[in-house]
Amino acid sequence: MSAKQDYPKSFSHIGITVPDIQKAVKFYTEVMGWYTIMEPSTIKKEKETAIGIMCIDVFGEDWDQFEIAHLSTSDGVGVEIFCFPHGVKEAPEFSPFNTGLFHFSIQDPNIEDLIDKIVAYGGKQRMPIREYYPNEKPFKMCYVEDPFGIVFEIYTHSYELTYSSGAYTK
């Protein structure tokens, strides 16, 4: 019997919880240009549908309903937006040193204009735009927040291109 060869898995989607689903869908579609795959919908706790059963499996019994919307990036990565009526409405404190997800990243070659648009829609620029190879290559990055305090990063170039030259060697 031969051993199976492992292969890189593709990224399917990310789930983000927000306090206002309409405002989140507006931000992510108008600022990021992401496609709306499914408009905001209400999911109720019930055992008569597959989605109801799945949500009980995931969230347990301590909920009655929530809102969900599905978006997609230009490269087909899904963004699932959740809004729970009884959840905490503020983003947790930024704690990158603790175990868990602390950001996601998107790519846009026009980083300056995107940051301006994020700020205009109520988001925040967390740091100056930085270059990986100053005066050598045009690879830039910056951490920002959406209007809900969710931290994400912007790259001007692909992840592979940015790191393939060894960004930490100089």
Count of DSSP-assigned helices: 4
Let me know the average pLDDT.
93
Spatial shape: globular
Radius of gyration (CA) equals: 19 Å
Strand-pairing-aware structural class: alpha+beta
Largest sheet data: 5 strands, mixed
Strand content: 25-35%
End-to-end gap: 46 Å
Number of strands: 9
Low-confidence stretches: none
Helix content: 10-25%
**What is the succession of H and E elements?**
EHEHEEEHEEEEH
Written overview of the protein:
The chain has 170 residues and is of the alpha+beta class. It has 4 helices and 9 strands. The chain has helices spanning 21-30, 50-59, 111-120, 159-164, and strands at 13-17, 35-44, 65-72, 78-83, 104-107, 124-125, 130-131, 140-145, 151-155. The protein is globular. The mean pLDDT is 93.
Q: In a nutshell, what does this entry contain?
A:
This protein has four helices and nine strands.
Tag the structure with descriptive keywords:
170 residues, alpha+beta, five-stranded mixed sheet, 9 strands, 21% helix, globular, MMCE/EMCE_epimerase, Glyas_Bleomycin-R_OHBP_Dase, VOC family protein, Glyas_Fos-R_dOase_dom, metal-binding
Write the topology of this structure.
Layout: E1 13-17, H1 21-30, E2 35-44, H2 50-59, E3 65-72, E4 78-83, E5 104-107, H3 111-120, E6 124-125, E7 130-131, E8 140-145, E9 151-155, H4 159-164
Parallel strand pairs: 1-4, 5-9
Antiparallel strand pairs: 2-3, 3-4, 6-8, 7-8, 8-9
